[in-house]
Amino acid sequence: MNTKFLIDAIVHQTTVLIAQLSTASGIRAPLSHVADQVFLELSREIEAQGVSRKVVADMFGLAIRTYQKKVQRVTESVTSRDRTLWEAVLEYLQKQGSSSRRELLARFDRDDPLIVGSVLNDLVGNGLVYKTGSGESAVFGITQASDLARAVREHRRESLVSVVWVMVYRAGTATRAQLQEQLGVDDTVLGEALETLIASGQIERTGEDAAATYRAHSFVVPLDSEHGWEAAVFDHFQAVVRAIGTKLRRGAPRAQQQDMVGGATLGFDIRPGHPHHDEVLGLLRRVRADVNELWERVQAYNAEHPLADEERTEVLFYFGQCVTPPDEE
Predict the structure, then answer these.
(1) Are residues 133 and 73 in the same domain?
(2) Beta strand pairing status for 129-132 and 213-215?
(3) Strand locations in 57-145 (E)
(4) What pTM, to 2 d.p., does this model score?
(5) 238-279 per-position pLDDT tens digit
(6) Helices H, strands E: what count in the chain?
(7) Would you state the torsion angle of the CA atoms of residues 132, 133, 134, 137, taken in this order, to the nearest 10 degrees?
(8) Domain range for residue 307?
């Protein structure tokens, strides 16, 4: 088994996904922490598999003392960088109303002028900011009267609320400290997300202060919902990873007919007029309808006959469909 090849291929596909997520909806998400976060979480997970620190250090090509120092440094810094120049420029323009290129370069004089210029061009290209004139006298301002900077912050807050909801649901029960460690967000921001979920009845809290635990009895992102897609993506991705990881841990990577853990990927080549054209394209709709109907029946039964934690067996079923027309290949 060429494990290194498999790891390299998965890393590449993951970076493609991260690149697309980081620019979704016109938002430029912070990425400065990604390399450190990958190192820290990967090292923790390998150690959790029972591998000694000396061996983990060797796997990273580091001496043990260098590895330990890097873990310490990254642990201290990985949660602190959650703001980009892109956001800072946008918020500054919102506060000022408008500003010349000269004023902007003076305001962000610690940043590379080329990067500041690229950020301004990107904001103008996205339609979030307008530009009048040229050169250093060019004036930049917020395109709309609405508070776009606040919209960016609100977008991130709504995203966090949904992600916290699904993490609590999948964990069964979770403490605030556990959620903060996994998410790496400011404790105040996490607290606001938890209170929002409690107020809406999406999660419930048992206990107080540091001893409090949180539980969610369901997690649903309705079709056509404007918010929560981030949590749905996370939930689907996590389900795939958990299924693969569970199969690897059990030492049975081969698929068998009687498997209850695993997955399958099938590709169909069709064209307009193909006798099975509509049947193939309708797979997602039909499977979603069948699974949703079963899920609703299970939820209704569980509401009348609550499950004790020691009896609860969780079954994660994931499915998806991607259609790539000839002009997108």
Answers:
(1) no
(2) unpaired
(3) 98-100, 129-132, 139-142
(4) 0.53
(5) 788 888 888 777 776 666 656 778 778 889 999 999 999 999
(6) 13, 6
(7) -100
(8) 263-329
